[in-house]
Amino acid sequence: MASVEKFSFHVPSLEELVGVLQNGLKNNFADVQVSVVDCPDLTKEPYAYPVKGICGKPRIAEVGGVPYLIPLINKKKFMPIVQTKSDHKPAVNGSYFAQINPVDGGCLLEKYSKKYDDFGFALLANLFASEGQPGKVIEVKAKGRTGKHNFVTCMRETLKKHYGDKPIGMGGTFVVQKGKIKVHVMPPEFSSCPLTSDEDVNNWLHFFEIEAPLVCQPVFVSQDPGFDLRLEHTHCFSHHGVGGHYHYDTTPDAVEYLGYFLPAEVLYRIDKPKETHTYGRD
Length: 282
Hints:
Elements: E1 4-8, H1 14-25, E2 29-38, E3 59-64, E4 82-83, E5 92-93, E6 96-100, E7 107-111, E8 124-129, E9 136-145, H2 151-163, E10 169-178, E11 180-185, H3 198-204, E12 206-211, E13 214-221, E14 232-237, E15 243-249, E16 256-263, E17 266-270
Parallel strand pairs: 3-17
Antiparallel strand pairs: 1-17, 2-9, 3-8, 4-5, 6-7, 9-16, 10-13, 10-16, 11-12, 11-15, 13-14, 14-15
């Protein structure tokens, strides 16, 4: 059985978070608008999620970790968008996966359910979960990046600076409406040589520059309360065949972000690696 640890996050009001994020983001973007709004219907484009919202008992589950992947793959260990089974509805797997196109070496994005009918994943996952209900959320609009941080890092660093040793976890979804971003996709084969530094990891990964519009699923925690967490992790997909792990925008003057977020109430840390390290987490 995998180990499970539970932690209660500090959960400020949405109104308080609006002010904190507005003040922090304005130092990194030319135009910022943060407000409390009704969550848009996420079953509609461009999201096309299996649920209408991100509200209802929001929590974060971090499963496994990078040490199960590097320095070498641990094959004994197990971009989800999933509605779990309930008394009234069957489970729905709306996930995507990005891989290297064997034909031309480019980025290939596919819908998971078109090739597989299970709900599994391997090695690690950073998940934001909720009841998928409509409700009040934090809307963040940001245009024109003027600072060094990407969209997610800026929010995380803002919360860390303001709340200090009171860890806050957040998740939700955002759209890169304009511009281009840098992503990576893992190679088709795991490395046979130990990867022992960030440089080794970056040389192994495949990087691409992809164009908006892109739909992203971020999970971020302001500060690790002692659970060996990946402080932020964001994947993205599109409806034009590309996706991957979000790093940052490559067109700072042109980029436009629109996101919807909620603070998580609880962290579930599942199957934390017994031996760990700090590289390979960008």
